[in-house]
Amino acid sequence: MFTRIKEDISIVYDRDPAARHTLEILTCYPGVHAVLLHRFNHWCWRIGLKWMARLFSHIARWLTGIEIHPGAKIGRRLFIDHGMGVVIGQTAEIADDCTLYHGVTLGGTSWKKGKRHPTLENGVVVGAGAKILGPITVGENSLIGSNSVVVRDVPKESTMVGIPAYPVGSTEYNRANGRNERGEFEAYGQQHSPDDPVAVAIHGLCTQLQTINAQNRKLVDKLRDAGIDVQGVDIPVMDTDCIELEPRKDKI
Predict the structure, then answer these.
(1) In this structure, are residues 86 and 102 in contact, taking their beta carbons and an 8 Å threshold?
(2) pLDDT digits over 137-194, tens only?
(3) What are the DSSP calls for the chain, one per residue?
(4) Pairing relationship of beta strands 159-161 and 166-167 according to DSSP bridges
């Protein structure tokens, strides 16, 4: 136990240049207080004192502004910097050497019992305000950008940014940031991509218009062959890009 406490204090020196001495860390760092109190609360939870664990975790939240469910599994040397507004759910798992900043949420997306909160592997750093949601896994040594929303598994040693978050340099990241698949900037974020949903919809409408146009032209021809007056009926002539060139007038 004392070894864990020493580790929780020593990591502050490594990750916060503002730390000056041990007394300051023990008295002025709510992230350290929250982790130390959670270790006791988690022990109570494991031995069956669940109400007591919840009560003490509620008190810890009131004292530190950090909410950690006593059922959450936290590894060694977790550093919560500033910490206000951090929420860690019941089935969340945090491995060793992770760092969380203020406003981070390790939350669930389901009301069903069972695993519903994220798992952070070794060395993960989660920026301020980031939300990691659902029973997903964040690979070791990954970085989660501030205010990002992560809703799917993260490969190890990735940097995730955005809402929803994508790995930096991926096709999805480039598309969201106005770049093509080669990472080249495209003016005004115009994406000439076959999977652009707007382009697909417009192409479908053009195809449908061309089909209707051809059918109408055949219908007019058949009416004319049958001796029916179709004078004044205009059938537009359209090119392959669905652009009207000139009207076609079928007159008897």
Answers:
(1) yes
(2) 999 999 999 999 999 999 998 888 888 888 887 666 666 665 655 655 554 445 555 5
(3) -HHHHHHHHHHHHHH-TT---HHHHHHH-HHHHHHHHHHHHHHHHHTT-HHHHHHHHHHHHHHHS-EE-TT-EE-SS-EESS-TT-EE-TT-EE-TT-EE-TT-EEE-S--SSS--S-EE-TT-EE-TT-EEESS-EEPTT-EE-TT-EE-S-B-TT-EEETTTTEETTSHHHHHHTTB-TTS-B-GGG----TT-HHHHHHHHHHHHHHHHHHHHHHHHHHHHHTT---TTEEEEEE-TTS-EEEEEEE--
(4) antiparallel
Report which residue type is found at 172. E
Q: Does the pLDDT value for residue 210 go beyond 70?
A: yes
Give phi and psi for 221, each to the nearest 5.
-60, -40
Which residue in this structure is represented by tokens 């059918």? 215
Report in angstroms the alpha-carbon separations of 74 from 42, 67, 156: 9, 13, 19
Give me the half-sphere count of Cα atoms (radius 13 Å) on the Cβ side of residue 84. 1
pLDDT of residue 143: 92
Per the CB < 8 A criterion, the answer to whether 44 and 52 are in contact is yes
Average pLDDT, the chain: 83
CB 200, CB 214: distance < 8 Å: no
What b/e string do you get for 43-74 counting C-beta neighbours within 10 Å, with b at 16 or more? ebbeeeeeeebbebbeebbeebbbbbbbbbeb
Residue 250: the pLDDT is: 47
In Å, how far from its chain's centre is CA 245?
Answer: 46
Nearest in space to 29 (alpha carbons), one of 76, 64, 3: 64
